[in-house]
Design goal:
Strand content: 15-25%
Shape: globular
Distance between the termini: 12 Å
CATH class of the largest domain: Alpha Beta
Number of strands: 15
Strand order of the largest sheet: 3-2-1-4-5-6-7
Number of domains: 2
Structural class: alpha/beta
């Protein structure tokens, strides 16, 4: 069989399944806009051109949403043109799988009408209790906000309506999609390499700028996100730190994440979410015990999780982060927000701890209590890893399930 995977940051979620298909003897091509850091064995990588921003943000209440839709239409067209080009060079895939999030799946049916059309359906926005109206500090439902969500979902609906089948990583994400589409969506996670993400009692991390070495057994609290922003509860975590430091005067807090935005709205001009919420509590903090390390290599992040006494994970009802599952795989004691995507994996008191997303005081006390009872809560760490091995292991669970789904 000939497979084409489309993802602007290929390989993305196809990192494991694409080379696995190639190893089985299939011809596999990946289409994206950047060269991967490391080539995937057996997979040919082809680039398409990024669309040019020719629209500009219109001065209209829906301007941002319209601008985003325009970008996705242009990106979908670029993908279609790239498919035509590789077709002229002799590659005609029988199966196309495209991530629908950036518009790349909009015209694959038109470009390859005879191919099976598969979609990676990561997230569908809106609806009661969704990410768009979860946090009253930053969003409130209104007719205009509902219009923005409809525009934001336009390209996703086109991809769903034209695909033969779709894949999403969790049941929560499947359930966010329209009821008419859910029968064609299968929930299979990309998988966690539990051999790579494993406990290590000898792990340590040197924070050279602070002159601090952290090792397993120390009072280390970790918080790791792609960007330090409200969607992942950064504001809630920062507001909990002054009380946490009073309760646990020897604890070190390490925050991993960039200063930009991935999912939240942009902060006020000239500011970052990181600095806004740090400035809110800075005068009440001992900054010698709070360490912002920015974006770090994945290996360093793993070491941080291996030395972590408590890993805090907060999220809106949104895409579940790989980092939470990786933390559980290395045997972290995870204290997470009691939100729907988290509850699919963590059961309070069995394989982790849950707390109300908005309750700052409860979060601080929860972290402090977990630090004080580390020896008593070892069974939660063991159960966390067992959950990932049993349900999300890459080699024995998720990759075989993805391959079986694709080959069907």
């Amino acid at each position: 069989m000939r497979y084409l995977f489309v993802h602007q940051n290929f390989p993305g979620q196809f990192r494991h399944v694409a080379p696995a298909l190639a190893a089985l003897g299939h011809e596999v091509v990946g289409l994206g806009v950047n060269k991967p850091a490391e080539p995937l064995k057996g997979v040919r990588h082809v680039l398409y051109r990024e669309p040019k921003d020719v629209l500009g943000k219109a001065e209209h209440p829906l301007g941002g949403a319209l601008h985003g839709l325009h970008d996705k239409i242009m990106r979908g067209d670029m993908v279609a043109r790239a498919i035509e080009a590789i077709g002229k060079k002799g590659f005609s895939p029988e199966v196309v799988m495209a991530h629908s999030g950036w518009g790349e799946a909009l015209f694959t049916r038109d470009a390859l009408p005879q191919a099976r059309q598969l979609v990676y359906a990561e997230f569908y926005y809106g609806g009661a209790g969704s990410d768009t109206d979860f946090d009253p500090e930053f969003s409130r439902r209104s007719p205009l906000s509902e219009e923005r969500v409809r525009v934001r979902n336009t390209h996703l609906l086109h991809a769903l309506s034209s695909c033969d089948a779709a894949l999403t990583p969790t049941e929560f994400q499947k359930g966010r999609h329209p009821a008419w589409a859910q029968d064609r969506i299968s929930a299979i996670h990309e998988g966690i390499d539990t051999t790579r993400f494993a406990p290590d009692a000898n792990a340590f991390v040197q924070l050279k700028s602070a002159g601090v070495t952290l090792k397993a057994g120390d009072e280390v609290v970790t918080f790791s996100v792609r960007q330090l922003e409200p969607y992942r509860g950064y504001h809630i975590f920062m507001r909990a730190l002054p009380l946490l430091q009073k309760l646990r005067p020897n604890a070190h807090v390490v925050l991993v994440g960039g200063d930009g935005t991935s999912y939240s709205a942009n902060p006020p001009p000239g500011k970052t979410w990181r600095d806004m919420f740090l400035d809110e509590v800075r005068e009440r903090l001992d900054m010698s015990r709070v360490h912002f390390v920015g974006r770090v290599p994945h290996g360093v992040l793993t070491q941080l999780m291996q030395v972590s006494a408590v890993h805090v994970y907060l999220t809106y009802p949104f895409v579940l982060s790989w980092s939470m599952l990786e933390a559980m795989s290395v045997g972290c004691l995870v204290l997470a927000s009691d939100t729907e995507p988290v509850r699919e994996v963590i059961e309070h008191g069995r394989n982790g701890l849950l707390t109300d997303f908005f309750d700052v005081e409860r979060l601080a006390h929860g972290i402090a209590d977990a630090l004080g009872r580390r020896s008593e809560l070892g069974h939660l760490r063991a159960a966390a890893r067992a959950t990932i091995v049993d349900r999300y292991d890459l080699a024995t669970r998720c990759l075989p399930a993805q391959l079986a789904w694709l080959q069907r």
